[in-house]
Design brief:
The chain is mostly helical. It contains 18 helices and six strands. About 50% of the residues lie in helices and about 5% in strands. The strands form two sheets. Strands 1-2-3 form a three-stranded antiparallel β-sheet. The chain has a three-stranded antiparallel β-sheet with strand order 4-5-6. The structure holds carboxymethyl coenzyme *A.
Length: about 425
């Protein structure tokens, strides 16, 4: 028999269906609550609200588990490639060799962007943050591919938009950086794989020979895998809610890029490095900064610490910490901020404030250190996160569409003024 929960309001009992997921997660289905009881639920920040049923990513915050389509993040990071993980997320299964070859070749066919996009790029001053430039260029695709606006697009049409999104993202990302540097842009070199192609567009200068360092490319590929999806976080929920109005894939993902930009979400990786640099310049006294983070009046938080869902450890942070060590060793980089990061982590992990609130290093705490070692500039850190998260956004947008989910439209509890008469300006 289907399980139900009982809710009593003013002595009257209501039955709520219980929904169970494949990993035994339990939810109360409140979709008919308003109709039956005249009551809504209130949950600021959606801390306890399931907004959808999804088969893409499973996450257990207490146990530190992250799986995509049933495969553990540890396995994927160690054995897979970014494009293979993208395929898995978007289409539900690991590809056979011919499927992956086709996917990769389809992407190569679309790595160029329309020359007129360069005119849009030229309109941005070089002081523009690359995230703003990236979101704008991504959304501009709606103008170059107006057929993508059709809410009833065929499966082939959707596939083309997916391929275009993945193909052009590295080009947009590298061009956003070139714009900030005031350098001419590079065109994609399709003899290279996805990650190396991006690195060449990012770094190559017209006057110099550029060879992609395989250590750098491998490390970046792993970082992209670690960011590929993370179920219903702020930017993904944004993509789903924009997509729920039947907006195009490009505008939905552009909204996700903007949501990711904030310092509490993807923007944290940039903030971590700025914080570590500030601590270093201040003499490296980590205790002082920990105390500042604990002082609610300081307005300062330990960036890269804490997570809405992980309350034990962030499995991505574990892998990234090890990768940071490996990359720095292989490249022979000695970054003084790594020492500060390790000290900060050590002090925080034995401090009751952080222990009681279950605040642990998250994915962003060490990723910035690797990006720095790979030579990626600070302003580009969140762009790297966006490049990694793209397959997740695509998969979630596609799932929403295939599940024919209704438009997202939360309710509210109104706390403003009651009805009052209008007073003309001269009498106020
Ligand atoms: N430093 C100091 N105190 C903190 C921190 C922090 N980084 N994070 C949370 N707290 C405190 C917070 O002040 C609150 O204390 P109290 O209960 O005394 O009021 C308590 O811990 C719970 O915090 P919260 O803000 O209610 O928790 P949340 O689940 O709403 O926020 C978070 C999660 C990630 C936004 C938050 O931990 C934070 O701001 N961290 C720093 C930014 C960061 O690293 N973000 C990257 C997240 S991982 C990448 C991604 O997926 O976006």
């Amino acid at each position: 028999m289907a399980k139900t929960a009982e809710l009593i309001i003013d002595g009257k009992s209501y039955k709520l269906p219980i929904v169970e997921g494949t990993e035994n997660e339990v939810a109360l289905d409140i979709s008919n609550l308003l109709e039956e009881t005249g009551t809504i639920t209130l949950d600021l920040g959606y801390k306890n609200t399931g907004a959808t049923k999804s088969a893409i990513t499973f996450l257990d915050g207490d146990k530190g588990i992250l799986r995509h389509r049933g495969y553990s993040i540890e396995d994927l990071a160690a054995k897979s490639s970014f494009l293979e993980v993208a395929y898995l997320l978007i289409f539900g299964e690991l590809p056979m060799k011919d499927q992956l070859d086709k996917f990769s070749n389809d992407i190569k066919l679309h790595t160029m962007v329309h020359e007129d996009i360069k005119k849009i790029l030229d309109g941005f001053p070089s002081s523009s943050h690359p995230m703003g430039v990236l979101a704008s260029m991504f959304c501009a695709q709606t103008a170059f591919y107006p057929e993508s606006l059709d809410p009833n697009r065929s499966a082939e049409g959707v596939y083309l938009s997916i391929v275009r999104s993945l193909a052009k993202m590295p080009t947009f990302a590298a061009w956003a950086y070139k714009n900030a540097m005031g350098h001419p842009v590079n065109y994609p070199d399709n003899s290279l794989n996805y990650t190396s192609r991006f690195l060449k567009m990012l770094y190559a200068l017209p006057a110099e020979q550029y060879e992609v360092d395989p250590i750098v490319a491998d490390a970046l590929d792993k970082l992209l895998i670690l960011h590929a999806d993370h179920e219903q976080n702020c930017s993904t929920s944004t993509v789903r809610i924009v997509g729920s109005s039947k907006a195009s894939i490009y505008s939905s993902i552009s909204a996700g890029i903007n949501a990711l930009w904030g310092p509490l979400h993807g923007g944290a990786n940039q903030e971590v490095i700025l914080m570590l640099e500030a601590i270093r310049k201040d003499g490296g006294d980590t205790e002082k900064w920990i105390n500042k983070a604990k002082d609610k009046n300081s307005g300062f938080r330990l960036m890269g610490f804490g997570h809405r869902v992980y309350k034990n450890f962030d499995p991505r942070a574990k892998i990234i910490k090890k990768t940071a060590d490996d990359v720095l060793n292989k490249l022979g980089v000695n970054d003084p901020v790594l020492e500060i990061a390790l000290k900060l982590e050590e002090v925080a992990l034995r401090d009751p404030y952080f222990i009681e609130r279950k605040l642990y290093p998250n994915v962003d705490f060490y990723s910035g250190i690797i990006y720095r070692a790979l030579g990626i500039p600070v302003d580009m850190f969140t762009v790297m996160f966006a490049m990694g998260r793209l397959p997740g956004w695509i998969a979630q947008w596609k799932e929403l569409r295939e599940n024919k989910e209704p438009i997202g439209r939360p309710r509210q509890i109104y706390t403003g003024q009651n009805l009052r008469p209008y007073i003309p300006i001269e009498k106020r």
